[in-house]
Amino acid sequence: MDRGFLFGDGIYEVFPVYNGLILGLESHLQRLQEGLDAINIVNPYDKKKWTSIINELITYHQENSEQAIYLQVSRGCDDDRKHTHGKLKPTIYMQSSPFKSPTKSDLLKGSAAITRTDIRWSQCDTKTTSLLANIMFAQEAKNHSVEEVILIREGIVTECSSSNLFLVKNNCIYTHPKGPYILPGITREIIIDCAKYCDIKVEEIAFNKESLMVADEVWISSSTREVVPIVCIDDRLINNGKVGETWSVIYDSYQATKSIRV
Amino acid sequence: MDRGFLFGDGIYEVFPVYNGLILGLESHLQRLQEGLDAINIVNPYDKKKWTSIINELITYHQENSEQAIYLQVSRGCDDDRKHTHGKLKPTIYMQSSPFKSPTKSDLLKGSAAITRTDIRWSQCDTKTTSLLANIMFAQEAKNHSVEEVILIREGIVTECSSSNLFLVKNNCIYTHPKGPYILPGITREIIIDCAKYCDIKVEEIAFNKESLMVADEVWISSSTREVVPIVCIDDRLINNGKVGETWSVIYDSYQATKSIRV
Questions:
Q1: Domain of B171?
Q2: Where does a domain end: A98, A114, A140?
Q3: Among A248, B9, B96, B196, which is 20 to 30 Å from B89 by CA?
Q4: How confident is the model at residue A169 (pLDDT cuts 50, 70, 90)?
Q5: Which secondary-structure segment (H or E) carries A174?
Q6: Residues of chain B with confidence (pLDDT) below 50
Q7: Would you state the pLDDT for residue B124?
Q8: pLDDT digits (tens, 9 = 90+) for A57-94
Q9: Domain count of the fold of chain A
Q10: Do residues B74 and B118 share a domain?
């Protein structure tokens, strides 16, 4: 009878952990708060309490130098199934999974992606567990043996099934602006910071599929995948299938940031 | 670890039961099949087996002359949380709730609704448990003490948070055509059949909000609400707040159908 199960009525976060320390903790907890606010669930804990709980979970798995902490808050259990709800006690589910961040030599091989029409709702900035559209796209990527599905909404490239997207053209990095059509990725923010630190221009503006296909470089980003270069989209090579220089600079900067920030 | 809880990765149906008999059983089981097909879950049972299980559940609650049988099939439990999936055993959840179909004298008082922008995904014909948008609208209706939220997508009236919508103008009934923007309601189909039986013209065509506001009658329909006349939208009266004659004819025909079909 949990509304997470009956209605997908919940919010989640994934915290990447390196050497026992959480990257982007404050940003993830802030986004959790914004997600809960967006769907009117009262956050059961403050940031201090969440930090303490997450850190406790991390210590149970110290054998894993890298962990992904999954945290879900659903609206809770009701007495009967009805679309509306009264005051309920939120359900909290957390788990730690080992993960292995990809190595630079692996990433330099380049990954592939396919494009699909973005059929998701118009509130993609809320990190909800009502994820059916996203998981259907992820499954399609798996079935096509590609890394990701790139989503196109009315001609505009938004993001991917579970990652943000960047392109590089003439030494400038482009990514879709924040708003209702993309998830405001924490890794996306870190990458933008890295670019600024490396004196590479970043433009948060919308671009279409044609721009994507003639980009010098295309990357995707997420907390557990970090930043992955895409060299083939819909069976067409990007930049002749070569991973770009800008990606390499940003990748190195991201790795440095990991050790500084955590 | 059920994907119903983690991803809203499931399909559901609600079967209305009158005097121990299910209205629209075949249609509901057909829609269940189509929903499972749409998201690639193998239907765990055939129609005969489902019928047997549902009828068994009904007998446990014979004290209730009217029941709503809720049936949910999620993709099942996986070993770890990942967006993609391999072959899993679907999880089945069912429950019977007593319900009381509204009386004609109650319905003749007329109900109110509000309009909102339809922010849902573009596959609303799949009856999925990823229902966050729908339940947020339902909660908004509750907070405004109205029966429903009427959804408008790019100027076009689609349906409501958990019901289909009809309008009557110059003795013709209009409702949004089937397709990706509405759920193909079983009650919607029965109403269309009733209208044909009563020699009332039905047009399944899209109409805008302006047409809605100047309609002679507006109704909503669902399996448990049946057909409810709406006489006030966004605080503006429809047909001077009076329930219309066509509604009365269709309501009576629907009640007759209930006793014939089940």
A1: 104-261
A2: A98
A3: B96
A4: very high
A5: strand A172-175
A6: none
A7: 98
A8: 999 998 878 999 999 999 999 999 999 999 999 999 99
A9: 2
A10: no
> Which residue from B94, B2, B137 is spatially nearest to A74, judged by alpha carbons?
B2
The verdict on pTM exceeding 0.80 is yes
Interface with B, mutate which of A1, A3, A7 (most B CBs under 10 A): A7
Same domain, B118 and B233: yes
Is A196 considered catalytic here? no
> A151 and A201 in one domain?
yes
Note whether B142 and B19 are same-domain residues: no
Burial B63-76 (b: 16+ CB within 10 A, else e): ebeebbbbbbbbbb
CATH label of the domain that carries residue B204: 3.20.10.10
Q: Please give the average per-residue pLDDT across A161-177, as a whole number.
A: 98
Whether the Cβ atoms of residue A229 and residue A169 lie closer than 8 Å to each other: no
Q: Which residues contact B55 (CB under 8 A, 6 or more apart)?
A: B22
- How far away is chain B from the Cα of A1, in angstroms, using its nearest Cα? 10
Cross-chain residue pair A80–B97, CB shorter than 8 Å: yes
Domain's final residue, options B74, B98, B122: B98
Are B79 and B7 contacting, i.e. CB atoms less than 8 angstroms apart?
no
Same domain, residue pair A63 and A112? no
Instruction: At A181, list the tokens.
Output: 């059509």
d(CA B122, CA B204): 19
The C-alpha atoms of residue A106 and residue A85 are separated, in whole angstroms, by 48
Asked if A121 lies within 8 A of B123 by C-beta distance, the reply is no
Least Cα separation, residue B165 to chain A (angstroms): 18
Query: Do residues B85 and B127 share a domain?
Result: no
Give yes or no: residues B39 and B114 share one domain: no
**Which of B1, B2, B3, B7 should we substitute to test contact with A (largest number of A Cβ atoms within 10 Å)?**
B7
Torsion from C-alpha of B217, B220, B225, B227, nearest 10 degrees: 40
| B135 & B223 share domain | yes
